[in-house]
Amino acid sequence: MAGTNLVGPEVDALELGVVLRALADEHRRSVMTELAADRTDSERGCNSFALPISKQTQTHHFRVLREAGLIDEIDYGNRKGIRLRRTDVDSRFPGLLALLEAEHRDGTAPH
Amino acid sequence: MAGTNLVGPEVDALELGVVLRALADEHRRSVMTELAADRTDSERGCNSFALPISKQTQTHHFRVLREAGLIDEIDYGNRKGIRLRRTDVDSRFPGLLALLEAEHRDGTAPH
DNA sequence: GTCTAGGTACGATTGATTTCGTACTCGAGT
DNA sequence: ACTCGAGTACGAAATCAATCGTACCTAGAC
């Protein structure tokens, strides 16, 4: 029941190159802009992002985000939770999440 | 003698995806971190960056940076100048250059 | 135990990106 | 005019990244 947290790099091991390569992909960036815009930092399901790609490819993208140190993945066995590593990212790359949050406002249709 | 400025996108046309893809490459990012760290924003020669790649490949990388809107390229015919579009980048993506500048401090050997 | 929904492992394919070889252009200097 | 240094154009090779098909695993519901 208590999911196991899949490992990612420590705060001090975060590398800008890896992070920027992770954010270069449109799908991964759309995930990150949503996470950055949600200030509650609540855990989210993997398929709450409505990505127009197969589940195998989603697995790949979430792994890239985790290995870049941007998110935590919590493995429950038959499902998975995603959470933004906001404090870590903010401390290592201040201003980065603000850029993504601004992009989310631009990319979200006004309602 | 007065070089012609090669065209890049207007400020409002800068796209985060294009910018992040441009910054994902190590060589292009090393150029950008150097430019971001130099607060005088002086024009620089193309080969003042000591990139360990052929000149054809350098041409390619500088073009990517220009088309992303990050730099201006001034063509003098037999040589070329590079200048950071600091105000444009700062106004469209505030905080981005600060991230690159911080990376320059980390990546520069202490002397 | 069986079934099902969500996720992963592995491999193959496809597409994009980086890189460079060859040939060419341009301007400065002699 | 000739040469030289710096850069570009074009195309090919090589490398890397995104995508998916098939098969498999896991926890929960029945």
From TrEMBL, chains A, B:
CDD domains the record matches: HTH_ARSR
SUPFAM superfamilies associated with the record: Winged helix' DNA-binding domain
All copies of domain HTH arsR-type, residue ranges: 8-104
Residue intervals passing through the bilayer: none
Matching InterPro entries: ArsR-like_HTH (IPR011991), HTH_ArsR_DNA-bd_dom (IPR001845), WH-like_DNA-bd_sf (IPR036388), WH_DNA-bd_sf (IPR036390)
Protein name: Winged helix-turn-helix domain-containing protein
